[in-house]
Write a structure and sequence with these properties.
The structure is a homodimer.
Chain A lengths: L15 H11 L4 H8 L3 H8 L7 H11 L3 H8 L23 H8 L3 H24 L2
Chain B binds a DNA duplex (30 and 30 nucleotides) through helix 3.
DNA sequence: ATTGACATTTGCCATTTGGCTAATTATAAT
DNA sequence: ATTATAATTAGCCAAATGGCAAATGTCAAT
């Protein structure tokens, strides 16, 4: 008659694996390399990425730097932390609004400025293509 | 011949239990009450307090509010977070060669993170193509 | 097609975590 | 002192976590 913890925590663990994988291949790293850099095992990371296992905070912390995440960022994504403690009134719960992904930032910053500009040029072209394609579909 | 993680993490788990107990009795709460408030079990909390078990992030998160800790505070104490996170990512040039063009940054930041990542994914593809092309040319 | 070098996944296992129940230990109240 | 009652601890167990080794998948070069 005790039953202290019925049901799910409201922990957002959806898609965390995918996100980690996306980040890893974007860098790009193999599972083994990431395992090496983070001091974990490739097999476990593989399972984490395809959501067969949920990573503990210890693992998450080890993954943060090699993947270019801020320390608490992965924790937030994993649902261990509520979204953005320090923020006063921005706080988009879905993490999408006006934030530049730290890894993206880091990578781009290493390119010459013309390349950076070319990249967003390509992006805007792709977006307009996508837009007109969507319109054709009626 | 693999051995990815020998030895201890440099996680500060010393005295965390004592600290939790001090806080609990200071409030004051019994183990059962705290267990009730946090949705955990008194037996486990007892063991945590006398450091027979180390609490997972999930438990820590549940304990934070009833004990009057800030969300990330217990995480820091537990060694899951390094002291003084605060800085949310971005803007710290601490690493990397160049600067990110502010206009580029602004435009990209308005895209969802997947798009941001896709963009640098495309960039890396283009770079590898360029590289191999250059090699073929000699 | 075959080999060889990597990368990923799977099988299996040890360790940890955390809950329930029961036992023990404090704390009052007669 | 002796119960009654509450609080803590200990015994046990199921589930989860994460590592290693072996199997499988992939891909380029022969």
């Amino acid at each position: 008659m005790a039953n202290y913890n019925i049901g799910m925590d409201n922990v957002n663990r959806t898609g965390l694996g995918e996100l980690i994988r996306q980040q890893r291949v974007a860098i790009p790293l193999t599972l083994q390399e990431l395992a090496g850099l983070s001091g974990t095992s490739p097999s476990h990371l593989g399972r984490v990425e395809r959501s067969e296992r949920f990573p503990s905070a210890r693992i998450l912390r080890k993954l943060a730097k090699p993947l270019g995440f801020g320390e608490n960022e992965l924790f937030t994504l994993a649902g261990y932390l509520s979204p953005q403690p320090s923020a006063t009134s921005e706080a988009q719960p879905s993490y999408g609004g006006g934030q530049l992904d730290p890894y993206v930032s880091r990578v781009l910053a290493q390119e010459p400025v013309e390349t950076q500009r070319a990249v967003i040029g390509i992006l805007s072209i792709l977006k307009s293509i996508a837009k007109s394609t969507a319109q054709e579909r009626h």
